[in-house]
From TrEMBL:
This is Large ribosomal subunit protein uL6. Part of the 50S ribosomal subunit. InterPro entries: Ribosomal_uL6-like (IPR000702), Ribosomal_uL6-like_a/b-dom_sf (IPR036789), Ribosomal_uL6_a/b-dom (IPR020040), Ribosomal_uL6_bac-type (IPR019906), Ribosomal_uL6_CS (IPR002358). This protein binds to the 23S rRNA, and is important in its secondary structure. It is located near the subunit interface in the base of the L7/L12 stalk, and near the tRNA binding site of the peptidyltransferase center. The keyword Cytoplasm does not apply. Belongs to the universal ribosomal protein uL6 family. It comes from Cognatishimia activa. Keywords: Ribonucleoprotein, Ribosomal protein, RNA-binding, rRNA-binding. The gene is rplF. It comes from the Bacteria.
Amino acid sequence: MSRIGKKPVELPAGVTASVSGQTIEVKGPKATHSFTATDDVTLTVEENTVVVTPRGKSKRARQQWGMSRTVVQNLVTGVTEGFKKELEIVGVGYRAQAQGKVLKLSLGLSHDVNFEVPEGVTVTAPKPTEIIIEGTDSQLVGQVAANIREWRKPEPYKGKGIKYKDEYIFRKEGKKK
């Protein structure tokens, strides 16, 4: 039994959800998002909650039960509060600068990296060594953060690179004489 799937998703004030077939559409103050569930689960809206129930007792139905409930919860959180990822740049001469829909990164390469920010996400650089990614879609915000981090992953000896703000870099000891 899914412990996550059993719990209904609460709809806060100002958020509405409508189900048509296997698709749920959530409208809130920030955005409107939809999700199409698999045929293994049933989505129902009761008063101000969304309930996800499995169809059958198969392993796949139970897996989809918990996953679908979490996706619906992320939709509700996204349209009310939004999601945020913070990146930190560590290294001498490494810096970031937000210019409209382009993030300009100086990462010790022979050229500057111009990262195109996709639609639905806002990227700001309040400090040259800090990047904040915000949006209403959890998956998109995480993917953009991962794509930016991919340009210069943190290395274990000096810790140089782009890391998540709460990430711990396991440091290695260098060569000894």
